[in-house]
Amino acid sequence: MSVTLLAIAGGVIILGLASYAGYLLLQLKKQKELQLQHRKLAIEKRNANIFENVNTLCLAGIQGQCDLSEISIRVYCIMDYVQGDERVDFEQEYPAISELYHVVKDMPRGEQRQELAKQERMQQNLTRHKAESRLQDAMIEELKLLQQKIRPLNNQINIQMI
Questions:
Q1: Angle subtended at Cα 23 by Cα 19 and Cα 24, rounded to the nearest 5 degrees
Q2: Which residues are CB-neighbours of 108 under 8 A, at least 6 positions away?
Q3: Which of 16, 46, 95, 116 could be cross-linked to 121 through a Cys-Cys bond (beta carbons 3.0 to 4.6 Å apart)?
Q4: What residue segments make up the domains of the chain, in order of their start?
Q5: What angle (nearest 5°) sits at the alpha carbon of residue 111, between those of residues 110 and 117?
Q6: What pLDDT does residue 104 have?
Q7: Which residues have CB under 8 Å from 146's CB, separation 6+?
Q8: At what angle do helices 68-79 and 118-150 cross, to 10 degrees?
């Protein structure tokens, strides 16, 4: 009789532990789903912020408020940080922006540019101006297309902790 009681008590304990393990696994699954949802929302919010900045840059380029070479560098580099399905392949979709970026990406800017010899600085200016004038119309059109593409994706998302 005592063996039977011990077997029943052991069975109850094992059943209780199995139920608790199942409960913990369910909680873990819910936590992982919540983390995945938060990660997705964070990526969407980050992309929306990037798209807002790119929209401003496109507008400045279209209106001629900034050099196209500077716009190509900034837009190309900023859009590289986009995550998820909204990533843009500049080589395929925006060849003029990509080409101008590859022409001017290694040219020094700011203080580094001022430190160059005058002859070298003039040579780089000439190269940059040639590329800008050759690609200007295509760049403006591509900036308009990019602006239209990212406008519907630019939805600001408010993230709240649950």
A1: 120
A2: 115, 116, 124
A3: 116
A4: 39-156
A5: 105
A6: 87
A7: 54, 58, 75, 88, 94, 97
A8: 60
Question: At residue 158, what is the residue type?
Answer: N
The whole-number average pLDDT for the span 119-136 is 86
Q: Please enumerate in sequence order all residues whose Cβ is within 8 A of that of 56, keeping only pairs 6 or more positions apart, or say none.
A: none
Per residue in 11-50, pLDDT (tens digit) is 999 999 999 999 999 999 999 999 999 998 888 888 888 9
Encoded tokens for 78: 């900023």
* 8 Å CB contact between 124 and 116: yes
Is residue 58 packed enough to be buried (19+ CB in 10 Å), middle (13-18) or exposed (0-12)? Answer: buried
Q: In whole angstroms, how large is the CA radius of gyration of the chain?
A: 28
Q: Are 84 and 43 in contact (CB under 8 A)?
A: yes
Which residue shows structure tokens 């798209």?
51
Query: Would you call 39 helix, strand, or coil by DSSP?
Result: helix
